[in-house]
Design a protein that fits this description.
Strand content: 15-25%
Radius of gyration: 22 Å
CATH class of the largest domain: Alpha Beta
CATH architecture of the largest domain: 2-Layer Sandwich
CATH topology of the largest domain: Creatine Kinase, Chain A, domain 2
Length: about 450
């Protein structure tokens, strides 16, 4: 789906004074203090709303630092400088963000406040996903540039498996391909209505919803806006989607490859503006401007080395196969969905789409990678190869997209970005350690495929 950058930015969240009024009026009884973790999930604590206003707002709170140094199963793992047995699994401070306060429409009398992690030295925790994105936004701001981000994400909705609670669900809500269909099963229509109402009530309306080609697959497109706000609200969207799905007897699956041969993406549409709000990628007389071409070149040059930040699990790489609308080569083209980078739109609305991230991506890290790569192209005035015309899946000369997490890990070590731009030694070591733990677990875990093929051979 094409996105057109709007003239206005994202609507503002409420502030602490507004929250205080909601608490005093007993509209809000509970506040969730949330720190996005490495997997792009909301982790944190529930607070009595009065206690939150009186004590947490002025003083912050503490959380065990391991929430930023663990895997999806929340296992305490060795090797992280931030938190391990060697550090005693100590706490870090978390400070609520006054610009990221939301009243949740899908949880009764509940608000959620995003928080940023701070170390004992009073400095922000550099490996925190939210902080990594903030660093890139600061680099843009130093050049008088702002970014606009629009996310579109896909996921699978299935009926819940009552015999195996917590599983992905065996039966998708749609029995056939409903791509672009307007006649949906009633359970799906009700889910769409609830999701739209909840997000609109939070001040972040959905731009569009469509059913996709796979059975039970849905694509949700969000308006353009501030990158940090886009990432925050993407996590809230996933929280809402899972909660509303559970209420409807469904399961929302955000895996990059939820089934063999099926891929779910999280495409990042973005544009850059100068200090006067003029789009840097605006075309003149149908010509793609040099700044857009430099950004494309930066993306093609740097993103192969940053795959850990937008494709974090072994499953992420099972999406990169032909005929799934996921890219398999680092190519670019004008309105070409077989390429990794798609130039789309017209006039002032011309912008770039990064089609590499899957539905499992952490939006803070993926957006940070995009902005760092594009800025490298602008700073060094890089020139891209000619745009690809035709089926980029068949391009045997272009650099292939990594086929595994192992390949991505190796590519990270050769990243051309200077350390100060994104990958400080601390950040690189942190996310390399996380990837290695993921690989170790998958290497030693016997899967259903192992059992099926092994029994047939025995």
């Amino acid at each position: 789906m094409n996105q057109t950058p709007p003239q206005q930015g994202a609507p503002a969240a409420c502030d602490f004074e507004t929250l205080r009024g909601l608490v005093e009026g007993e509209t809000v009884k509970t506040v969730l203090l949330a720190v996005p973790d490495m997997q792009g999930r909301l982790t944190g604590k529930r607070f009595d709303a009065g206690h939150f206003i009186d004590h947490v707002v002025p003083q912050g709170s503490d959380m065990c630092a391991y929430i930023l140094a663990t895997d999806v199963d929340m296992r305490p793992l060795p090797g992280f400088a931030l938190a391990s047995a060697d550090t005693g699994w100590g706490d870090m401070s978390v400070l609520p963000d006054p610009d990221a306060v939301y009243q949740l429409a899908w949880m009764r009398r509940t608000a959620l406040v995003f928080a940023d992690a701070v170390g004992h030295d009073g400095q922000p925790v550099s490996v925190a996903p939210r902080r990594i994105l903030m660093h890139q936004l600061g680099r843009l701001a130093a050049r008088g540039i702002t970014a606009q981000i629009g996310l579109e994400t896909e996921f699978i909705l299935s009926h819940a498996d009552t015999e195996n609670p917590g599983q992905a669900g065996a039966q998708p809500v749609a029995a056939r391909n409903l791509d672009y269909a307007l006649d949906h099963p009633s359970v799906l229509t009700r889910f769409f209505d609830d999701l739209q109402e909840c997000l609109a009530g939070m001040g972040w309306p959905i731009e569009a919803i469509k059913t996709e080609g796979a059975r039970g697959q849905v694509e949700v497109t969000f308006p353009y806006g501030d990158p940090l706000r886009a990432a925050d609200l993407h996590l809230l969207f996933k929280h809402a989607a899972r909660a509303l799905a559970e209420q409807a007897g469904l399961v929302a699956n955000f895996m990059a490859a939820p089934q063999t041969g099926i891929g779910s993406g999280c495409h990042i549409h973005f544009s850059l503006l100068d200090r006067d709000g003029v789009p840097l990628f605006a075309e003149t007389d149908g010509r793609t401007p040099d700044k857009a071409l430099h950004a494309v070149a930066g993306l093609l040059d740097v993103l192969p080395h940053l795959a850990l930040l937008y494709a974090p699990t072994p499953n992420s790489y099972k999406r990169f196969v032909p005929k799934t609308f996921a890219p398999t080569t680092f190519t670019w083209g004008r309105d070409n969905r077989t390429c990794a980078i798609r130039v789309v739109g017209h006039g002032d609305g011309l912008h770039l789409e990064n089609r590499l991230p899957g539905a499992d991506t952490n939006p803070y890290l993926a957006i940070a990678a995009v902005l760092a790569a594009a800025l490298a192209g602008l700073d060094h005035k890089l020139d891209p190869p000619p745009p690809y015309i035709g089926n980029a899946f068949q391009d045997i000369k272009a650099l292939p997209v990594h086929g595994s997490l192992e390949e991505a890990l190796a590519a990270l070590r050769d990243c051309p970005l200077p350390a100060k731009d994104l990958l400080t030694p601390e950040i690189a070591a942190h996310y390399t350690t996380a990837a290695q733990h993921e690989l170790d677990l998958h290497r030693t875990t016997v899967t259903d495929l192992d059992l099926r093929r092994g029994l047939a051979m025995a």
